[in-house]
Amino acid sequence: MPFWLMKSEPAELSIADLQRLGQARWDGVRNYQARNFLRGMQVGDLFFFYHSSCAVPGIAGIARIERAAYPDPSALDPHSHYFDAKASSEKNPWSAVDVAFVEAFPEVIRLPQLKAQSALTALPLVHKGSRLSVMPVSTDEWQAILALR
DNA sequence: GCCAACGTTGGC
DNA sequence: GCCAACGTTGGC
């Protein structure tokens, strides 16, 4: 079963929010590379929930894919922050998935700690300037990160 | 608030 | 198809 990592701004959706909600739609991805990874996800896949653009950037927990990729409704909603005027219900280039809460770590695994792991040098997340918000995580990387909990 | 890195747009 | 300009991401 493949593993992934996805970034979310906790002001938008945090691991605590997902814990409270149980489930949520993961929408608003507007980058083709990230979208293609979204489309590769299968129900049951696990991912690390990363908090970005916040006081303590890092991995905050684990969640699971509950529904595989489908056309992202937020692209069609004029009131949405993620509205895309070029998208239509016939031709919507963007994808969303549904996710479910699995686990919140007792403490966020902070970015500097992740960057210090030699097992994670290939992970785009730790690369300076990397903006990719959805990425695959190898089994070895998954285990290395789990060991930091 | 700053700024480096990156993706996208659009003129040519 | 090139590439400069621009907008966005995201750590600090």
From TrEMBL:
InterPro entries: 5hmC_binding, EVE_domain, PUA-like_sf, THYN1-like_EVE. Residues 3-147 form the EVE domain. This is EVE domain-containing protein. The lineage of its organism: Bacteria, Pseudomonadati, Pseudomonadota, Gammaproteobacteria, Pseudomonadales.
